[in-house]
Amino acid sequence: MNRRKFLNYIGCGCSSLMISACSTTPITDRKQFKIIPESKLNAQAAQIYEKVKEKEKMSTDIKKLNEIKEIGTRMEDAISEYFYQAGLNDPTTNFDWEYILIDKKVKNAWCMPGGKIAIYTGILDVTKNINGLASVMGHEIAHAVAKHSVERASRSVLLNTGTQLIDIFSGGKLSQVNRVTGMNTVGLLSQIGIMNPFTRTQESEADYLGMIFASLSGYDIRETKELWKRMKKANKGKEPPQFLNTHPSSSKRIKDLSEWESSVILDYPPITIS
In 236-271, which residue ranges form alpha helices assigned H by DSSP? Predict the structure, then answer.
């Protein structure tokens, strides 16, 4: 088989794989490419979460932790109820929700696949109130609900396979550049040219879905843009250029959130649990 025929063969195979692995995100209906089993990532995330709990210092502020758990429980119920009433599959069915508060002065929060959530005490200075905290948690929970980790892992597998094929059929030119320059050219190009725009799309989607989940749960989502105004002030303008950042700039976030606010309040009011 010559090179052209082989490339055509690989191309057809990849196309078939991509078609069979296509799905859409809940609510936004954005097309996704997923080939990594969600159950596998959930299991790995659970193991890593346990290691985080062992390594990090947990906060002794029980009142704040209970507040986090209450917000989380309200969102869990609201999300499941929304999909039930809409007659859609609940994307959180296989989640094993858990919440921790890490005693560390960094402005951070995250949600692993399967609903494993961590809030850092440092971000509480920015959230300020229960609605601000709900905004942060809604955003992080949205990443898990939209299966962003599964999507990113799948794209990473596809990208690595593709670049290896390019290197083979270019006679190893990419590897040669890496050796001469001492840098991972493929990795750098993929990060700036492919992965970062994709990640910013996920972040914007999580902003939008997070507002919806907070609104469905009965929180005041008008606080969301105020949260990001405080975050922008806390960052003191030290944000990298947006094309080098995996997150939208604070200014763009505030603009988008302001535009979405009215329609989300109207279309996704607090939901009644049946």
Answer: 250-267
Residue 70: CB atoms within 10 A of its CB come to 13
| CB-CB contact of 221 with 215 (8 Å) | yes
Nearest Cα to Cα of residue 197 among 149, 139, 243, 142:
243
Catalytic residue among 54, 70, 76, 140: 140
| DSSP states of 36-86 | S-HHHHHHHHHHHHHHHHHHSPBP--HHHHHHHHHHHHHHHHHHHHHHHHT
11-37 pLDDT, tens digit each: 444 444 444 467 899 999 999 988 888
Q: What is the length of the chain? A: 274
Q: Judge contact between 217 and 78, C-beta under 8 A.
A: yes
Q: Mark the ranges of the chain whose per-residue pLDDT is less than 70.
A: 1-21, 157-198, 237-246
CA dihedral 251, 136, 22, 48 (to 10 degrees): 130
Over the stretch 184-219, which tens digit does the pLDDT of each residue have?
444 444 443 333 444 788 999 999 999 999 999 999
| pLDDT value of position 200 | 83
203 catalytic residue (yes or no) = no
pLDDT at 239: 62
Choose among 83, 157, 76, 87: nearest CA to 111: 76
d(CA 134, CA 117): 13
Starting at the earlier edge strand, list the strands of the sheet with 109-112: 98-102, 116-120, 109-112
